[in-house]
Specification:
With 241 residues, the chain is an alpha/beta fold. The protein folds into 2 domains: 1-81 and 161-169 and 190-241, Rossmann fold (3-Layer(aba) Sandwich); 87-157, no CATH class. It contains 10 helices and 10 strands. This is Branched-chain amino acid transport system ATP-binding protein.
């Protein structure tokens, strides 16, 4: 079994006439939390969308375990045990929290058929999901919507969770709650790939880090070593952590 659950090898992605990714090499170790950092426009979200098959690589390979998933469509990729929480969260505002969760629980046709033990675990991670169970999702706060988005992604067991900027726009108290939840998810055995701009979030959670610039990964290694090297941080991110 490969030590890396997910790997990208020389991935190029074009969107229309625009060449966005220029040979991305990325490894996400099994059972760890990998932070994908970089300035705005570096190609982080495009990398996530390419992994999920929302955009297809024009060159290179995306592998999940030993399987080449480069040419698969998004539903096929999701069926392999990969969940994706986009930056806009993808919440169905007119549906209740319960209905949003039920849509993601593909093995259940009604709420009573959802895995009770798993729901209890999710409610422990995100109490607001239980509190607002029958409320319209569109009425939730930004932090509550983010909790719902992550809860929906893990309502069924997943091997890999991919999340785009989970702390964006959230209050510090909600960010701390999110950090604790992702830490618990990692300890449960879920491999996680996070795009994040909040440096405190990245330092607290990251095992490994990859930094992107101009459509390429320009640095990868341990998060601890990266956090200790202010000169490297300034050269890659334009700031020190």
């Amino acid at each position: 079994m490969s030590a890396n659950l997910l790997s990208l090898e020389g991935v190029h992605t074009h969107i229309g006439a625009y060449h966005i990714l220029h040979g991305v090499d990325l490894a996400v170790p099994r059972g760890q939390l990998t932070m994908l950092l970089g300035r705005n426009g570096a190609g982080k979200t495009t990398t996530l969308r390419t992994i999920m098959g929302l955009w297809h690589a024009s060159q290179g390979r995306v592998r999940f375990g030993e399987r080449d998933i480069t040419a698969l469509h998004t539903p096929q990729i999701a069926e392999l045990g990969i969940a994706y929480v986009p930056e806009n969260m993808g919440i169905f505002s007119d549906l209740t929290v319960r209905e949003n969760m039920l849509l993601a629980a593909r093995g259940a046709s009604n709420a009573a058929q959802m895995d009770e033990a798993r729901l209890k675990w999710i409610f422990e991670l995100f109490p607001a999901v239980q509190k607002f169970w029958d409320h319209p999702a569109g009425k939730l706060s930004g932090g509550q919507k983010q909790m719902l988005a992550v809860s929906r992604a893990i309502v069924e067991p997943r091997e890999l969770l991919i999340v785009d900027e989970p702390s964006k726009g959230l209050a510090p108290a909600i960010i701390n709650n999110m950090i604790e939840a992702f830490d618990a998810l990692k300890k449960s055995g879920v491999t996680i790939l996070l795009v994040e701009q909040n440096i405190h979030f990245a330092q607290r959670l990251g095992d490994t880090v990859a930094v992107m610039d101009n459509g390429r990964v320009v640095h990868s290694g341990s998060m601890a070593a990266f956090s200790a090297d202010e000169e490297l941080q300034r050269s890659l991110l334009g700031l020190a952590l």
